[in-house]
Amino acid sequence: MTTTAAETMPLRALLARIWRDYLSRHKGSLVLSILLAAVTGLLTAALLKLLEPAVNGLFLGGTAPISLFGLVEFPASKAILWIPAAILAVAVARTLAAIGQAALVNRLGHTIVGDIQVRLFGAMIRADLARLRSQHSGGFVSSVLFDANLVREAFTSGVVTYTQNLLTLIAVLIYMGFIDWQLTMVVLLGVPMVALVLRRFGRKTRKAAVGAMTETENLSTALMENLDGVRLIKIENREAAEEARVGEVVARRQRHVIKGANARAFAGPSSDLVAYIVVAAVMAYAGWRAQSGEMTVGGFAAFIGMLLAAGQALRQVTNLATVMAEGFTAARRLFGALDIEPEIREAPDAAPLAAGPVEVVLDRVSFAYAPAADGGAPTLDQVSLRVAPGETVALVGPSGGGKSTILSLLPRFYDVTGGAVTLNGRDLRDLRLHDLREHIALVTQEPFLFDDTIANNIAYGRPGATQDQIEAAARSAAAHDFITALPQGYDTRAGEAGLRLSGGQRQRIAIARAFVKDAPILLLDEATSALDTESEALVQAALERLMQGRATLMIAHRLSTVKNANRIYVIEAGRVVEEGSHDALVAKGGLYARLARQQSLDGAPVNVETVA
Ligand SMILES: Nc1ncnc2c1ncn2[C@@H]1O[C@H](COP(=O)(O)OP(=O)(O)OP(=O)(O)O)[C@@H](O)[C@H]1O
């Protein structure tokens, strides 16, 4: 993934951004869940505080009235009723607060995950083609599926565990201070030790998290690649080899995941150890003080109970540090991905493009896929061509010459690096992107069908199209008959199931899609080259109907399909080397004539009849 500022963002800025982009909209629930977490934390400490009067009142047989938190006072004889009742009341309140807080935080956390996922997808689908092509799709998939959840975990743990445990810790320390402040000072000596443990494990988790995320990305890519290439894998008997390759990725990922899980798991017991060292110190000191009668048994019991609770809270906070480390690493990655601005953007003052016929002109267009600074050689060099409304213009030439690249420039999949493409005299880059693409229909060699009904696939570019419009388009595309012969007609699902459709049928659905769109510019990319003769005749006839009245720019490898074009441009090594009608170019005896000769079946010198 490309590095952006977000990936090295300091923690404060990261938190500020999480707050601004995701949390601030849920202020109400957030504040409420923090409040509930605080109540849970305080009530946990309160439960422990009850130990003191409980032990003193129930076991030591004192006669002095007993006070609970200075709120209720009752005679020692009633302790057996009041104390259990108080414990129960506090416990129920604590449970309710904890449940409420968990419910709020879960909803909030998952809402945020969904929010991140949708935004990520939005960024992905709007990203420049150049970027999408240069990055493994697995990276996007693992970000959407996994990274977003790591952020949620950090957030949930952050808001809930942190608030709750920190408050438990503070309340417990305060209560402890009331019981015996000197002893509390002894306890506080443990804090720097725990901080040290936390830092150490936090660093390890962070490192493991980065490694695990990269490998999750690799794993997603490997899985998708294998599914895409399943035919090749089978025909070449490479199942075992692929299994081994994926096995290696899994093993690498596992190593990081185990390291991370270990760091997380070891942090708890290590901070426990510190806590027990403190307990031991407290025992020694408290024992000594109890002997001199400065501490009651109840006080001591409550103190030790609180100490253990403090240890527990500390342990949770320790875990938290590692979960946070993972979450922030994921957040940095996510923001990194979200922050890459597409380079192909609409100008702020972009002009609308009115519906109607359009003339396309390429004026000395140059283009390179990679910037010259990165050693990118130009793919197109001073290409000039024009297509008037109603005209069909063909691009022919040797493989790799730049024909597909020319087509990609029209919908601004890429922007020219020199010269200009104009529609009705206006530079593409000055037009509204939506309007521009609305004016172009594209029929490619391998039409893509979504896993949706045939009707919806045909209406993809015009979601409001009526059934009549869809059927009319299908008739014009010579697709109506085979569609109605399908089990559910227009409601048959294509896409995954569409694999059952033949190449020609898919092609005709794509043509029907273009008919429905009814755009004034038509781009055809070798639309008939993969078909058998009969299918080709049907598709060819449909295409000819489609081309009528539009400005058509088509790529064809087979010259038979371009014979009737108004003009043919021969593209070689990124340049227009010849231009003219079929007859003129054949007569010229240059590259086109040579290609035509190569393609005539009998190898005879080409003339209009044999090429056809
Ligand atoms: N996404 C890309 N990134 C970098 N280089 C590319 C990309 N797409 C194409 N190229 C390069 O640009 C040149 C022109 O390719 P293009 O696909 O436009 O040729 P073409 O004439 O359509 O070829 P063919 O007839 O084989 O489809 C080739 O050298 C190709 O390697």
TrEMBL record:
SMART domains: AAA (SM00382). It is found in: Membrane. This is ABC transporter ATP-binding protein/permease. It comes from the Bacteria. The chain crosses the membrane at residues 30-48, 79-99, 166-198, 273-290, 296-314. GO terms for molecular function: ATP binding. Signal peptide: none annotated. It comes from Brevundimonas nasdae. Residues 360-598 form the ABC transporter domain. PANTHER family: ATP-BINDING CASSETTE SUB-FAMILY B MEMBER 10, MITOCHONDRIAL, ATP-DEPENDENT PERMEASE MDL1, MITOCHONDRIAL. Residues 31-326 form the ABC transmembrane type-1 domain. InterPro entries: AAA+_ATPase (IPR003593), ABC1_TM_dom (IPR011527), ABC_transporter-like_ATP-bd (IPR003439), ABC_transporter-like_CS (IPR017871), Type_1_exporter (IPR039421). It is a multi-pass membrane protein. The keyword Glycosyltransferase does not apply. Keywords: ATP-binding, Membrane, Nucleotide-binding, Transmembrane, Transmembrane helix.
